[in-house]
Specification:
Blueprint lengths: L2 E6 L6 H5 L5 E5 L9 H12 L10 E5 L8 H8 L4 E6 L5 H18 L6 E6 L2 H5 L1 H5 L5 E6 L1 H5 L9 H18 L2 E3 L9 H13 L5 E3 L5 H7 L4 H20 L4 E3 L2 E3 L1 H18 L1
Parallel strand pairs: 1-2, 1-8, 2-3, 3-4, 4-5, 5-6, 6-7
Antiparallel strand pairs: 9-10
Length: 286
């Protein structure tokens, strides 16, 4: 899931183009991108799409960002979008692990009501200071949690922190990556609002990749190719990873715990990373 394109659920005319795009995932948005007066309309339009599974490309990860737990729209959102083909429900502004557990229970009830047999996961937005501070507790609150997604605008702007302050961005990413890693879920990067600044998008995406993030959110189709390129292993990385995996197999047969590949000392953590790169490269070819 190198790239994830946000699509306002109030804009059904954009659905076909988004689904046909090169984005790995489509995140239909019922929250910030939809005006209060159009919430019901957007929810109905998205449900009409989701109840027609043939309209959803099998290779796309389908995500829906609902309104926050505790808002007047949450229950209706969940009842409408808990459908076959949806992989993740994106939960904004979780306040406490109890919120996550309550949402997981509500999601299970919606699955039973709608005849959904494949469990839908949760992607939690980390977009407040408290959520960042308690990110591990939120991520480990329930087995449905698959990932944590950074929301830098919501996190920074109320505090007067510049969204483009690189030191602040790096620190927030690092904290989120460690929390996600401890909980055994993926970390996903924030959106980048300056659509015309491709270089800025690429720099932030590269930083996220270097910090172990799975991919980056896109708010415009022009950002999809940039995200895909940033999170795709290079030919050199793939070649080195294959040499590491091959060397690991030989070392295991010889009972060696550490060895050298391309002039670098290799042990278990490097092999784990190499195998992940090889697996991603293999998936890219499919």
């Amino acid at each position: 899931m190198k790239s994830k394109l946000f699509v306002p659920a109030s804009r059904p005319e954009l659905f076909p183009k988004a689904l046909a795009s090169a984005a790995d995932a489509i995140s239909f948005d019922l929250e910030d991108a939809v005006a209060e007066s159009r919430k019901d309309e957007a929810r109905a339009a998205l449900r009409n799409l989701l109840v027609t599974p043939d309209a959803l490309p099998p290779h796309k990860t389908i995500i829906v960002r609902v309104n926050a737990y505790g808002t007047p729209h949450f229950a209706a959102d969940l009842a409408a979008v808990t459908q076959r083909g949806v992989a993740l429900v994106n939960l904004p502004k979780p306040r406490h692990p109890d919120d996550v557990r309550a949402v997981a229970r509500a999601l299970g009830e919606a699955e039973r009501a709608n005849g959904v047999t494949e469990p839908i996961g949760l992607l939690l937005n980390i977009e407040t200071p408290a959520a960042l501070r308690h990110a591990y507790a939120l991520a480990s609150a329930h087995g449905r949690v698959r990932g944590l997604q950074l929301g830098l605008a919501d996190l920074f702007e109320p505090l007067g922190i510049a969204r483009r302050e690189s030191a602040a961005v790096q620190q927030a990413m690092f904290m989120l990556a460690l929390a996600a890693g401890e909980a055994g879920v993926f970390a996903y990067d924030a959106a980048f609002a300056d659509i015309d600044d491709a270089d800025g998008f690429c720099r932030e995406a590269q930083l996220a990749r270097n910090l172990g993030f799975l991919g980056k959110s896109c708010i415009h189709p022009s950002q999809i190719a940039l995200a895909n390129a940033a999170f795709r292993p290079t030919d050199d990385e793939i070649a080195h990873a294959r040499r590491v995996v091959e060397a690991a197999e030989r070392a295991d047969a010889q009972g060696l715990g550490a060895y050298v590949v391309d002039g670098k000392m290799i042990d278990v953590p490097f092999v784990v990373r190499a195998r992940a790169i090889v697996a991603q490269a293999r998936q890219e070819k499919q």
